[in-house]
Amino acid sequence: MGHSRDRDYADFRQEVRAFIEQSLTDEMREAGRLQTSVFPHMKQAIAWQKVLHAQGWAAPSWPKEFGGPGWDAIQQQIFREEAYRASAPTIILQGLTMCGPCLMGYGTKAQQDYYLPRILSTEHIWCQGYSEPGAGSDLASLTTSAVPDGDDYILNGAKIWTSHAHEATHMFCLVRTSTEGRPQKGITFLLVDMTTPGITVEPIINLNGIHEQNTVFLDSVRVPQTNRVGDENDGWTVAKYLLEFERGSVCVSPELRRNLRLLHRGAKTERTANGEPLIEDRVFRRKLAARDIEVSILEFNERRILSTVVDGGSPGVLASVAKIVGMELLQDIDKLATEVAGLYSLPLQSEALVPGHEKEAVGPDYALTAMPRYLDGRSVTIAGGTSEVQRGILAKSVLGL
Ligand SMILES: Cc1cc2nc3c(=O)[nH]c(=O)nc-3n(C[C@H](O)[C@H](O)[C@H](O)COP(=O)(O)OP(=O)(O)OC[C@H]3O[C@@H](n4cnc5c(N)ncnc54)[C@H](O)[C@@H]3O)c2cc1C
Predict the structure, then answer these.
(1) Average pLDDT of span 135-163
(2) Is the CB of 382 within 6 Å of ligand 1?
(3) 140 lines ligand 1 (CB under 6 A)
(4) Is 187 exposed, middle or buried (0-12, 13-18, 19+ CB in 10 A)?
(5) In the predicted model, what is the mean pLDDT of residues 31-46?
(6) Residue 173 phi, psi dihedral angles, 5° rounding
(7) Closest protein CA for atom 35 of ligand 1
């Protein structure tokens, strides 16, 4: 049984690899190489998703009934590994891994029929409006209000850190519909068309000069009540379901392996003060080996999580551990990459990070993204729940503290 399953996965990997090899254009590969965060360059990511969509692979994690390929968790990981290996742009997360699953779990049939195919086709691009200036880790304290008015709600407030809001056609968001009782009880999940009057999007420029996040101001924004997902005041249940769905899918080892490969390549070219290749330097080799081993350990743990999911189980706290370790390891590898790039990591060349740019970059290829990745990496232990909060969860649920 085990053997045939392994053989099936090996065949599947070959099929995925061959398809990616023949379908990825040079422009898409360039965009993948120049990507410095979890968020892809939108234009090429859309072009890539259209190619995948034609193949039925646009949404790796979706079941067949909603237009996904129906892959199990291990097949999804193989797809991720092969996509990173070929420098494909990563998938556009918010629609495919966040809003889509919420609609599958809690949307009406009409909402599913309307929105899901448009997520797959890229006609709709989504952003996630959860965080607010006064509500991050303590999300339940959010205050953006939605007041019923006829068949609509009227929204007032602000969302912050909203990734891709400037490129999105829609935002799924949490709003306050009641201030009675526990704060979690008065939250509602809404779908908002970004062209609705009263929405203003202002950029937040990252440390590395790239524009991915935004503040979204909502000033008397009229949203039809039919855009509500789940019941009024029950948005927390929908938001929690999303976390359930995501469990076990936070596997970063394919990205870490790719980053290690780049590092390795750079270290063969760079020389130490003595003129020997950096890769021969004992101190450097020790650091590289340590990171390599840590990535292998993470890979084993991710596989444990994935096979638990394939067998119908729940990975439980192991997923939180993998998130903390994976993100901290990502930061360590980014730091080592700046060591390899040395002086070339100093000029911040934001313009040369735009796919299709005409600007000649200073320094070798691998050095161009080293510092932008390092700077972006400061945020990975914050976004999606900070490491401190995750550790708090572990202390409570595992150690019983
Ligand atoms: C790059 C990036 C992209 C993002 N994209 C989006 C997006 O698209 N949509 C969206 O809605 N949000 C997004 N976020 C927001 C993200 O979810 C929040 O930043 C995160 O939840 C932390 O909230 P905060 O920034 O308000 O920090 P705070 O919650 O104010 O935390 C400040 C500090 O206090 C610590 N702290 C807080 N509570 C506890 C606790 N209970 N125990 C121990 N320590 C604690 C934190 O660890 C942190 O160090 C993004 C953030 C980043 C950095």
Answers:
(1) 97
(2) yes
(3) no
(4) buried
(5) 94
(6) -145, 165
(7) 388
